Amino acid sequence: LLNDTEKSSGCVLVDMGAETTTVAVYKNRLLRHFAVLPLGGCNVNRDITSLQIEDLEAEQLKLQYGEAIYDPAENKRENITLNDGRTLPFGDFSNLVEARMEEIIMNVDHQVKLSKYDKDSLIGGIFLTGGASEMKGLEKAIRSYTEFTTLKHKKEISLQLRGSNI
After folding, report:
1. How remote is the C-alpha of 143 from its chain's centroid?
2. Other Cβ atoms closer than 10 A to 33
3. Which residues in the chain belong to E strands, given as ranges?
4. I need a labelling partner for 114 at 20 to 30 A (CA). Which of 3, 36, 75, 121 fits?
């Protein structure tokens, strides 16, 4: 996903998946630090299901309303109506999602600190990939919780082999 120039100048590749978040720190074309965090997009879903919401609906709500950082001034929505007719205060939902995303981002930031490379030496910034990296407001949240200002999305290339026995 990264080219030689990006790895040479120094950068952090963050792959935010369903169950894990992988952090890889590159500098001078070499992998300098690598960690797999046991946190991902499914943790957000599990938090939502703690509100007595089914898994499938939790995923739908996360995709439709979830934001990595919640600003009540930007979003005036009052309630979310659930499939069973109950209402959920939007602020409560958003705070739940934001808290988990903050935890993931802060853990990523901690891994960068453990790499012993400061953000000034990683001039390529952070490259985001993975399904959970598509959450609304993620780039704003990363800028808010870390000192990184350079952020880029790298879309994953997936290959489906249909009818293959491999």
Report:
1. 12
2. 17
3. 11-16, 21-27, 30-37, 79-81, 87-89, 126-129, 151-153
4. 3
3-class DSSP state for residue 24?
Answer: strand
For residue 62, the one-letter residue type is K
- Residue-wise pLDDT tens digits, 79-104: 999 999 999 999 899 999 999 999 99
Phi, psi torsion values for 7, nearest 5 degrees:
-70, -35
Q: How many CA atoms lie within 13 A of 8 on its CB side?
A: 3
- Geometric angle at alpha carbon 92, from 77 and 50, rounded to 5°: 130
Distance between CA 112 and CA 66 in Å, rounded? 26
Identity of residue 98: E
